[in-house]
Design goal:
By secondary structure, the chain is mostly helical. Helix 3 runs antiparallel to helix 4. The longest helix has 21 residues. 1% of the residues are buried. The mean pLDDT is 83.
């Protein structure tokens, strides 16, 4: 199966999610309270999603120019998920 990854835009779409989880973006008071009250579950979910990304990306292969782009993307995503807390 061939899957096309938008390696140029995906990191930009992941960043707001990570930043919101880390509360590094403007959030409403209601959202802040939700994030704090559910911190353990939010972090557990983030680790789960990171594990799914890791599994998916490790199975991906590319050729030629795509290979170097894929390798750079894998390095960016997998390295940043290493910074996540573990269970």
């Amino acid at each position: 199966m061939k899957v096309a990854l938008d390696t140029k835009n995906l990191p930009g779409r992941m960043s707001p999610w990570r930043n919101a989880t880390d509360m590094n973006v403007k959030l409403s008071d209601e959202a802040k309270l939700h994030m704090l009250a559910n911190r353990a579950q939010v972090l557990k979910n983030m680790v789960g999603v990171a594990d799914h990304w890791r599994t998916f990306l490790q199975a991906c292969t590319g050729a030629g120019k795509e290979l170097s782009e894929l390798d750079a993307f894998k390095n960016e995503v997998l390295h940043s998920s290493d910074e996540l807390p573990t269970n």
